[in-house]
Design brief:
Largest interface: A-B, 94 and 123 residues
Number of domains of chain A: 1
Radius of gyration of chain B: 39 Å
Strand order of the largest sheet of chain B: 1-2
Structural class of chain B: mainly alpha
Oligomer: heterodimer
CATH class of chain A: Mainly Alpha
Largest sheet of chain A: none
Radius of gyration of chain A: 19 Å
Distance between the termini of chain A: 48 Å
Number of strands of chain B: 4
Strand content of chain B: under 5%
Structural class of chain A: mainly alpha
Shape of chain B: elongated
Number of helices of chain B: 39
Helix content of chain B: over 70%
Distance between the termini of chain B: 68 Å
CATH topology of chain A: Helix Hairpins
Order of helices and strands of chain A: HHH
């Protein structure tokens, strides 16, 4: 199980980084999305992979790790998802504005000299 | 008066006064001077009030909590030595303020200099009273800072700017070294409290880090006290107004270095390293300073080098292994302050009344300003060490020490007395040059001003100081005796040596040395007298200019090195930067693996579930496909990314994280819609079969990028595997699980963490989201699409036969048109259900999966759905959306919930919870965290809608403008961030 998820993280990260290094802005945005999946999964996995662990406490109970999934990485990732959404939106708009200003969708705002 | 109040007033009053003087109008010369003088006098009186305690051998001490968790407190302490310095700082400060009132011209912004002087006085007082090493380093840097401002007071002249910058660079860098040294010292001792440090001399000297601490502290002390090889900043600091030079560069600032050396003398001195470093620096500085001083043509330059030389003498005394030498050093600190300050003031008077300080132009001022001449004569004689003046007595002590001190090697012991005599002879020579050059000789010609005596109040401080020189010189034991005694005792403790303060010790070797030095100095002056006027700089060591070295290194650091780094590492292009960052990350990760090894952890991996394998086979295919297609097939790539996102979402469900899955799903939808809206503005790019692009150029680059991507991907995979097969660090999770319900009042621990335990983080996060939403809105208000994106997309033209241009999105859509009729009806039905679901998610968030984020996203999705099927105009006719209002409400609610805790005198964002019985619905939890979560909800709704609608409106706007759009040659440069218009 751990192996499957590690490979998944590796593939997501590798694809994302490949796209980050591409010259077109859209590629960079897609790359960032893929990379953020990889990172979120990685942070999430630091709590340990638990299938079937309870996520919700019984009322009045002091939870223990034996019964419950680790809530801390989940809280971190939840925050990361929302912030990731916000930054993607900002990046998109900045890139669109840059495209409008410079007339190109190259990440440097001008086509590479051949 | 309680000690704490006294010490605190002493420290704070100058800073308050500095602030008050700083806000005075530019012309308020008398007010500012009166204020500064009053504060200096009050402080002097406060210092005097501490006299009984200190004279009895006691220590005034006040402690204030600062960082108790680190064991750090603000400690103010005043023992005999600190008292002596505090007296000097305030007493001379008062005299300098009086002097400055008459010296400064009314055209200068005079209140400013008094503000700086007071602030400097406060910093210096804080330095000498610091009872904690870190505090000492802090005030040390503060003195450097204010001395920078004071030297650069006449910032319209280049000399002042350069001198200030040089002093700041040298003493500031030394201060940083000192800070590091203090940290090392504190580490050795285990405490930063000065008293603990002063009680652990043996620990310090025997510690392996002793040498490091010593070197760092000496860097600080020697730069501050202008010791060789850092001496060169002091002459350049003479660009400061003369009162500043008199105060800082004779009596106080430069004495901070020797103050520290004396302070740490009992615990750090006595080793070979100390003797070599401190004694060596002092010896060289004393000789070089005195030698160069002879050849200075500027009165202040002469005094500056003489100060360097005398500081070298004090440092040399501190470097000797002798308690008596320490007493002599403290005594000379006092004496030097008195005569050098008065000489600076005299030089300032000459400058003020004649318009020049050049010894070659000055002459015969004895006739026009006889009184000043006599005062300067006495002070210069004290500097030269003439009997019956204070300089003589400390010089005799110095000679005695030079004869008897222990030296590391025998030859040095032989050199010391000769070096002492030589430096003393030089000081006679330059003192003679100062007096003879300025006051004697023929009538001066071509002076810028006609010389005359200054205002009598301007001369008053000089008179006081010269009186001190004479009194101490004639009756040392009766005047300075007790002060010197308890100051030295507070440093040395029980090791206090017996010494005798008197003018006459009988015919002995030191007396003979004095006579020889006096005679030698006079002879040297007579020999050199005529040649000095035409000489340019000191012979033999003319090339030894610290300034040139300093400037070269500054040019190297701030220009060549910076340029080199920019050329090598800097780039204006994104891709090389990213390559550097990723490469560095891979290297760092690889290095960690190389050094620490990489092995699987202690957990047995769970059996592989074929369903999950299948899920991630799809996910990996989606990711790779997106990477493959993102250039030419953007829509496909976007769909594939969405696919990968769904697999992530399923993974969250699989591994017991329902909250994450919910959030991921909703965010996925909104992100995809957002990117879809953006697609329309990107340039068309078609893959032409056969055209492989500039293949030769890019093949190498692509191979390199592929290697980076593969390396990073493999690295991430390996890292994840290693992390996952280890027992997670469970301490924090345990903490939250235990308290989630019992203290947070919610069974959904993730939500409780977000809105309660780590509520402040969430608050910060929603402010970021709000800022981002407003930023996108602002950017889009002035959005100008590129020329080739202005046309209506061809897909839309195909769909709307008969409709001209892009009115498709306008009133034609909605009910009555045949466009998407079935989805439209369904959406209208589903919309209320979605809103109810959102509220359900919001309210149950504390106990069950849900919460403000996902609820807000669901509302946003519902509204987007209406936009998509109903069209912009139809939706906006029926639904008055005010995203900014939502954002504002959200921020107010969340922050308000946090602030409300203050009303119950609890810390910010403390939450409160209870259960309430409602009819029908039953028992529901009522937590203040719920209000906070409602704020998050409102903000997410507002921010998401603002971004989406702003982007979607671009299409409408562009379509409307198309019919009249004549292709503009060059779009106006939009003014981003300017409100209005759009």
């Amino acid at each position: 199980m751990e192996l499957v998820l590690s490979l998944a993280i590796g593939v997501l990260a590798g694809s994302g980084i490949w796209l980050l290094l591409r010259p077109r802005t859209f590629q960079v945005i897609i790359g960032l999305s893929l990379l953020s999946y990889a990172v979120n999964l990685f942070i999430f996995s630091t709590g340990g992979l638990r299938t079937g662990a309870a996520a919700i406490l019984e009322k009045g109970e002091m939870g223990t790790l034996a019964r419950y999934a680790d809530p801390l990485p989940q809280a971190l990732v939840l925050t990361a998802i929302v912030i990731g959404f916000a930054t993607t939106a900002l990046l998109l708009v900045v890139l669109l504005a840059a495209r409008g200003l410079t007339g190109t969708d190259h990440v440097d705002g001008r086509e590479r000299d051949r | 008066m309680p000690d704490a109040l006294l010490l605190l007033t002493l420290l704070v009053l100058p800073f308050l006064g500095s602030f008050a003087a700083g806000v005075l109008p530019r012309r308020a010369r008398n007010t500012a001077a009166g204020l500064a003088g009053a504060i200096a006098l009050v402080n002097l009186a406060l210092v005097w009030a501490a006299y009984p305690t200190v004279a009895a051998g006691g220590v005034l001490r006040a402690e204030f909590e600062w960082m108790p968790s680190l064991g750090l407190n603000l400690v103010l302490r005043m023992d005999g030595f600190a008292w002596l310095f505090a007296g000097m700082v305030t007493g001379i400060g008062a005299l300098v303020v009086l002097y400055a009132r008459y010296y400064m011209s009314a055209e200068d912004p005079v209140p400013r200099i008094f503000a700086f002087l007071l602030a400097f006085m406060g910093a210096m007082t804080g330095l000498v009273m610091a009872g904690n090493l870190i505090q000492l380093a802090f005030f040390w840097e503060l003195t450097s800072l204010f001395s920078f401002l004071l030297i650069g007071y006449w910032h319209h002249t280049a000399a002042a700017r350069d001198g200030a910058r040089m002093a700041m660079t040298i003493t500031g860098a030394g201060g940083l070294a000192l800070f590091a040294g203090m940290l090392v010292l504190g580490h050795i001792v285990g405490s930063y409290d000065l008293e603990v440090v002063l009680a652990s001399g043996d620990v310090i000297r025997d510690h392996p880090l002793y040498l490091l601490a010593l070197l760092l502290i000496l860097l600080g002390a020697l730069t501050k006290s202008a010791q060789f090889p850092f001496h060169f900043w002091l002459p350049h600091a003479m660009a400061a107004p003369t009162p500043v030079s008199a105060y800082l560069h004779s009596a106080t600032l430069v004495k901070a270095g020797v103050f520290l050396l004396a302070r740490l003398w009992p615990v750090m001195a006595g080793t070979e390293e100390w003797t070599w470093l401190v004694g060596g620096a002092g010896l060289i500085t004393m000789l070089i300073g005195a030698y160069i001083a002879i050849f200075q043509n500027d009165l202040k330059g002469l005094l500056a080098y003489s100060t360097i030389s005398h500081l070298g003498l004090i440092t040399l005394l501190l470097g000797l292994k002798s308690e008596l030498a320490l007493v002599a050093a403290i005594f000379h600190i006092l004496n030097h302050a008195a005569f050098k300050c008065s000489l600076f003031m005299a030089a300032g008077i000459i400058d003020h009344e004649t318009g020049t300080r050049d010894i070659r132009r000055l002459s015969g001022l004895n006739r026009s300003m006889p009184f000043t001449a006599r005062l300067a004569l006495v002070a210069a004689a004290a500097m030269a060490g003439v009997p019956l003046l204070n300089g003589f007595i400390s010089k005799e002590m110095f000679f005695a020490e030079a004869l008897s001190a222990e030296a590391p090697v025998f030859t040095l012991l032989n050199i010391l007395p000769f070096a002492a005599m030589l430096a003393s002879a030089f000081s006679v020579t330059y003192s003679l040059r100062f007096i003879h050059g300025a006051f004697f000789g023929p009538e001066p010609t071509d002076l810028p001003k006609t010389p005359h005596e200054p205002a009598s109040w301007m001369r008053f401080p000089v008179e006081i100081l010269v009186l001190v020189c004479i009194m101490v010189g004639v009756l040392p034991a009766a005047t300075v005796g007790p002060f010197l005694h308890f100051a030295a005792q507070s440093v040395l403790g029980d090791a206090m040596p017996a010494y005798s303060l008197s003018v006459w010790h009988g015919f002995n070797l030191p007396l003979l040395m004095s006579v020889l030095a006096l005679a030698g100095g006079v002879v040297l002056y007579l020999l050199l007298q005529d040649r000095l006027r035409v000489m340019d700089g000191p012979p033999l060591i003319r090339r030894l200019e610290g300034r040139r070295i300093f400037e070269r290194s500054m040019v190297f650091l701030s220009w060549r090195l910076a340029r080199l780094l920019e050329r090598r590492a800097g780039t204006q292009r994104l891709q090389p930067q990213l390559r550097l960052i990723l490469g560095a990350a891979i290297v760092a990760g690889g290095a960690a693996v190389w050094l620490r090894g990489l092995g699987p952890g202690n957990l047995v991996p769970a059996p592989i579930d074929p369903v999950l394998v299948l899920i991630w086979a799809v996910g990996a295919a989606c990711a790779l496909g997106a990477a493959w297609q993102a250039k030419y097939h953007r829509l496909a790539a976007l769909i594939l990314v969405g696919g990968a996102g769904l697999m992530v979402c399923i993974t969250f469900v699989w591994f017991s994280a329902p909250d994450l899955a919910l959030t991921q799903l909703t965010v996925e939808i909104v992100t995809t819609v957002l990117l879809l809206l953006g697609l329309r503005w990107l340039p068309k790019r078609r893959q032409v079969p056969g055209d492989r692009g500039p293949e030769v150029l890019t093949r190498g680059r692509r191979a390199r990028d592929l290697a980076i991507a593969l390396g990073a991907g493999l690295g991430m995979a390996a890292l994840s595997y290693v992390v996952m097969t280890r027992t997670p660090a469970d301490l924090l999770a345990q903490h939250f699980l235990e308290r989630g319900y019992t203290e947070g009042g919610g069974t959904n621990v993730v939500n409780v963490i977000l809105v309660d335990f780590r509520g402040f983080d969430t608050l910060g996060e929603i402010f970021v989201v709000a800022a981002v939403a407003l930023a996108t809105f602002a950017l889009l208000r002035r959005f100008r699409p590129a020329a080739d994106s202005r046309q209506v997309p061809e897909q839309q033209r195909d769909q709307a036969p008969g409709a001209e241009g892009g009115s498709r999105h306008g009133a034609a859509s909605g009910p009555g048109s045949d466009w998407l009729l079935v989805p439209f009806m369904l959406t209208r039905l589903v919309f209320p259900i979605m809103i109810v679901t959102a509220f359900f998610l919001l309210l149950r968030g504390h106990d069950l999966p849900g919460g403000g984020f996902s609820a807000g996203m669901v509302v946003a999705i519902a509204i987007i759905l209406l936009y998509m099927v109903g069209g912009t105009d139809w939706t906006e006719d029926r639904l008055r959306l005010r995203p900014q209002l939502w954002i504002g409400t959200g921020l107010l609610l969340s922050t308000g919930t946090g602030l409300a805790a203050w009303a119950f005198s609890k810390p910010f964002l403390t939450s409160y919870f209870d259960y309430a019985d409602l009819p029908v619905i039953g028992r529901i939890p009522v937590a203040s965290a719920l209000v906070f979560d409602i704020g998050v909800f409102a903000l997410v709704v507002g921010a998401t809608l603002l971004m989406l609608i702003a982007l979607a409106h671009q299409s409408v706007r562009a379509h409307r403008s198309v019919p009249k759009a004549v292709p503009e040659p060059a779009p106006e440069r939009p003014k981003l961030g300017v409100a209005g218009g759009g």
